[in-house]
Design brief:
single chain, elongated
Length: 473
């Protein structure tokens, strides 16, 4: 028994020695940290843990001086940033954390209740070379970033709802990072000038409305996307640039909520859409209407910059038969024109333009190993697509489903309920998840208000007391 106790004691001691902690006190007194002229630079030694917070909230945290304007943290094993830091450091302009094994950012670095406007404004935040980044819900809520918010070479297993929720960001940039899953509203920015995701950033799953932003310029370039759902990109843009990306699996219509915004300063912004040289692996298939971008027809024809060219697809009838039949024969044009639109415009079609300007077919052997073939998508369609003796569209003998007939039947049924007519036409094409997501958003907004919670409790208590009184009458 003594031997077992001794072994357990040794194991516990080894655990606590493996990762060295830092006791509470002033951050300026922590080993490796230097404070000079309102700037703090912490260069940690191996396995050092750094917890930065306010003493009255976190007992073992190190508290920075109130007049800090710049905070730089490097080479720590584990870093935690606690709530209220930006209320305490009202004049902080630059926050940088780099070369860390794990970083945890707790809720509400800035709490807007009773705070001055200056406390909620920072020039730049940079998080880079972090093997395990964890951002809690509402970590950045109500913050204004007048310069850049930068994520570079970070790994996140999960981006929870409202993790990256900002009031304003001049430039939000992500480079060469890995995200396992982004939940609905994982990235939510009320307004930004530029939004950039670049350099082979890897996204395994984006939920519906994972990225909800309003930006003058929105750019996705040379990244890899695994599983995308309805309206994964819920974006109001001025100029939208999507190029060089690989889209592995579309499980919905990810571009459904991409829409131009018209509140731009025309002197500094240009409206337009760039959609070129993207690869659609379409594993296992490219779902019907998954390329829909309904707002394409809302871009001003005379002043918008449009560049759609060279997008590539796996040329397989089971995978993209509907896309090929539409491009060559206008098959299912009615149902495709209706997707997500209240007033369909059949004169303009994003999907048709993608087909007409498509590039070479591709063959994919592994997840990220796709190679071009000599045949173009249009050449494949010319050979594969035909009409059989009964007037049905076929792709190498496989019948391509006629959604126009199905949609017409749905529309006829929906006219029986006039007050819900418009909703039925759109919801059936957008997907059943959309209405559920709207309900979820409303519930999240309700739960966010403490006052609302108190009111609900009072009403419930009053109801119970009233019911009890009635039962005793």
């Amino acid at each position: 028994m003594k031997i077992v106790t001794l072994l357990l004691s040794v194991a516990l001691a080894a655990h606590f020695v493996a990762v060295e902690g830092v006791e509470g006190g002033s951050l300026c007194d922590v080993e490796g940290c230097e404070c000079r002229e309102a700037a703090i630079h912490c260069l940690c030694h191996h396995k050092q843990v750094l917890k930065i917070g306010l003493h009255h909230r976190v007992q073992d945290a190190s508290q920075p001086p109130e007049d800090t304007r710049s905070l730089t943290i490097q080479n720590c094993h584990h870093v935690e940033l606690y709530g209220g830091l930006l209320n305490h450091m009202e004049h902080l302009q630059n926050l940088s954390v780099s070369q860390a094994h794990a970083v945890v950012i707790h809720p509400k670095l800035f709490d807007s209740r009773g705070a001055s406007e200056a406390a909620g404004t920072i020039q730049s935040i940079s998080l880079s070379n972090i093997h395990n980044l964890q951002v809690r819900r509402y970590s950045f809520k109500d913050l204004k970033v007048t310069g850049i918010f930068y994520l570079g070479e970070v790994v996140m297993d999960s981006v929870v709802s409202m993790a990256f929720h900002f009031k304003f960001v001049k430039e939000f940039s992500v480079f060469a990072s890995v995200f396992e899953r982004i939940s609905m509203f994982g990235v939510k920015i009320d307004y930004c000038r530029e939004f950039n995701i670049l350099g082979m950033t890897h996204f395994n799953t984006l939920a519906a409305h994972a990225i909800k932003v309003k930006c003058d310029k929105f750019s996705l370039a040379y990244n890899w996307f695994g599983n995308l759902h309805d309206s994964s990109f819920d974006v109001e843009f001025g100029l939208c640039d999507i190029q060089g990306n690989t889209f592995n699996t579309l499980q919905g219509k990810p571009f459904l909520s991409l829409a131009p915004q018209f509140s731009l300063n025309n002197e500094i912004s240009q409206m337009g859409l760039v959609f070129r040289e993207n690869k659609f692996v379409s594993y296992p298939v490219l779902p019907f209407a998954s390329l829909a971008l309904p707002s394409y027809g809302n871009l001003p024809a005379s002043s918008s910059y449009i560049d759609i060219e060279g997008n590539q697809f796996v040329c397989d009838c089971q995978s993209i038969g509907w896309f090929l039949a539409y491009g060559k024969l206008d098959h299912n044009s009615k149902s495709l024109a209706d997707v997500g639109k209240v007033t369909p415009r059949e004169d303009l079609s994003f999907i048709r333009d993608v087909f007409l300007t498509s590039g070479s077919c591709i063959e994919c052997y592994r997840e990220e190993d796709c190679r071009e073939t000599r045949e173009t998508v249009r050449q494949f369609a010319d050979i594969a697509i035909s009409v059989d003796t009964q007037g049905a569209a076929t792709c190498h003998g496989l019948t391509v489903k006629n959604y126009d007939i199905e949609i017409n039947n749905q529309i006829q049924d929906s006219t029986k309920t006039a007050d819900k007519n418009d909703m039925v036409k759109n919801e059936k094409l957008v997907g059943s998840s959309e209405s559920g997501e709207r309900l979820t958003e409303n519930l999240m907004l309700i739960n966010d208000g403490m006052a609302c919670k108190s009111d609900i409790k009072i009403v419930l208590a009053w109801s119970i007391i009233s019911l009890y009184g009635l039962l005793n009458l």
